[in-house]
Structures are given as structure tokens and as C-alpha cells.
């Protein structure tokens, strides 16, 4: 009787809280994959690199802002100008709005433009994954607690050979063993 | 119920604004201002103290966003933080208050860095280019130690306290150079 009640409530909680956190699960799932591969790609922006050469007698590390704006205008980004500086005597770095930038090699006029474009959905998911404020801390704590609850309720949801005493038990054991084996080898 | 929701939203917005305003007030209160080009030489006098610096945000660390590189034509300073910096700051001129931190790089640190560099390269975590750059960097530390006659190199950085973004000048305004 007691086991039946536990099973019933496990199903109810797992189902209803599961529905509530579908959106959050997708956010953490998507951003989890995106951020896991940070060394292979930029998880927030798609990056396009463009190369051009500017022909101008004004290219030097004493250039005025108007002269810099002329360069930006030459490569059609004047309306996006944000700021500039000279990292050294041979380089000019121009920042554009939205995180893009142009690096000009002053002696040759060769420019490298790095254009960034936000990855829709993934950018927003990553923003939330990084815990932007206190409200989200509380909400994500609730989500973490719900994950613990999902794990515990899943132990009681199904009975018989598909449950903990059968196939479910083997899967549970495997899921626990994998991180343990990893820790033995890599910690 | 509706009123309660509005009240909660208003409180939430208000709390965010209050935090921002108090940070801005803090920015103007700190008197010790160091020009970025003098940071490496003057920072030693302010270890553990708050100073104010002004510069352009060159980049925000994409691994976690808790590091920022502040630059101008003359120098660059690393800023670290417990909080994440917004990537929207890239390219903005900011006035930042931070606590001066000193990191001492000794021969023991160099040996550890060498070991870490080899380990991460052999595990495929760093490219050949990154591996060579790190090796060069360690060699530079050793050369600086020999040149200075000290058994350590001081690396100064700032631990973020607050910042205020300077308004970007209109393109028709001053035909100024970046200082």
C-alpha cells in the first residue's frame, strides 16, 4: 500500500514538475553542449573574417578620429564605429558595435575584419546558463532541486522487470559507474 | 494578484537600479587614479588598495567572462572579477575602480607553468601555436628575472570593484586622438 502511494506520487511529481521545467531543461541542455566545446568554437557568436587592403597615405599611428572614420567608411562600417586605439606603431584596432572589430596593419594597409553575429537561441541560453542575477540563481537552484527530485522519483516510477529490480537497475548502475570510472582514471 | 505582480516587478527593477547607482557613486569617490601607461611602475605603491584607471575594453574572456583586458595606446592592464563582465563592454571606454593585486612569478612558478604547458599540449588541449607561445612567455619571465637581478617577476592586475562606461563621442564631435 505504502509502495503504491510512493509510486503514485513519484509519477505525479516527475510528470508535473517535468512539464514545468521543460523550457529550463532545454536551456541548460543546449547551452551545456555549446559551452562544453568552447575551445572549438565561439558559443555566443558566429564569426566571419574578411580581408581587404586599404590604399591611403594617411595610415599611421598619429591618425585622427576623422581619418579613422574614413577608413571604417571605406569598408562600409562607419555607422557601426565604436572606438579605436593603436596597440603598437604598426597596428590600428577599430571596435565596432556588437563586438566586431577591424585590425589594420598600417605599413601595408591590410585589414582583417572580424564580424560577430549573435547565435540566436544559443546566445540567450548561454546568458542564462552563466547565472546573470539573483532571481535566476533562485530559479536555477529550484531547477537543480527538481533534477534531484527527478532522479529520486525515477527510482520508484516503474515496477517489475523494467523497474529498479530489472533493466532500470542496470541502467542506474551504469550511470553511476561511468563517472566513478572516469574519476579513478583522471582525478 | 495583478497588483502583487506589479509590486514585485517594481521592487526587482528598483533593486537593480539601486545597485547600479551605488556602484557609480563609488566610482567617483576613489581618488587614486593611475594612468594606464604608468600602471606597471606605480601599482607597487597601491597593492591591496583601490585605484581608478581609464581605458578601452579590448576583450572579455570568453571562458567565463570574469577577465577583461583594458587597453590604450600606451599600455594594457588585466582585470579580474568574481562577477561576469558583459561582452557588450568590448570597445567601450570605461572608468574602472579595482584593487591592485600582485602576482609573483618565480622559478618554481615557471617550472610549474612548463609542466602544465606540456601536459595540456600532450593531452591535445592546446595547439602547437599556443604551446610555443606559452614556452616563449615562460622564457621571457626568466629573462626578466635575470635582467632585473630579482628572483621573481611582479605581475600587477586589478580586482574589479566597479566601473562606469564613458559615453561614446558622436562622430561629428572632437577630432581627437585616443590618449
Can you characterise this structure?
The complex is a heterodimer of chains A (187) and B (179). Chain A has 187 residues and is of the alpha+beta class. Chain A has helices at residues 2-20, 22-36, 65-74, 122-129, 134-157, 167-186, and strands at residues 45-53, 81-88, 91-96, 101-105, 110-118. The longest helix of chain A has 24 residues, at 134-157. Chain A starts with a helix and ends with a helix. In chain B, helix 3 packs antiparallel against helix 4 (128-148). Helix content of chain B is 39%, strand content 27%. By secondary structure, chain B is α+β, with helices and mostly antiparallel strands. Chain B has four helices and five strands, in the order ααββββααβ. Chains A and B meet through helix 3, strand 2 and strand 3 of A and loops of B.
How would the blueprint of this fold be written?
The complex is a heterodimer of chains A (187) and B (179).
Chain A: H1 2-20, H2 22-36, E1 45-53, H3 65-74, E2 81-88, E3 91-96, E4 101-105, E5 110-118, H4 122-129, H5 134-157, H6 167-186
Antiparallel strand pairs in A: 1-5, 2-3, 3-4, 4-5
Helix pairs in contact in A: 1-5, 2-4
Chain B: H1 2-29, H2 39-42, E1 50-60, E2 67-71, E3 76-80, E4 93-106, H3 107-122, H4 128-148, E5 152-165
Average pLDDT for all residues of chain B: 82
Helix content of chain B: 25-40%
Question: What ranges of chain A have pLDDT less than 50 throughout 5 or more consecutive residues?
Answer: none
Stretches of chain B where pLDDT falls below 50 for ≥5 residues? 14-22, 170-179
Number of strands of chain B: 5
What can be said about the biggest beta sheet of chain B?
5 strands, mixed, barrel
Shape of chain B: globular
Topology as H/E string of chain B?
HHEEEEHHE
Q: Which structural class should the secondary elements of chain A be placed in? A: alpha+beta
Backbone CA Rg of chain B: 20 Å
Q: Using DSSP, what is the number of strands of chain A?
A: 5
Give the assembly state of these chains.
heterodimer
Q: DSSP strand (E) fraction of chain B?
A: 25-35%
The N- to C-terminal Cα distance of chain B equals 55 Å
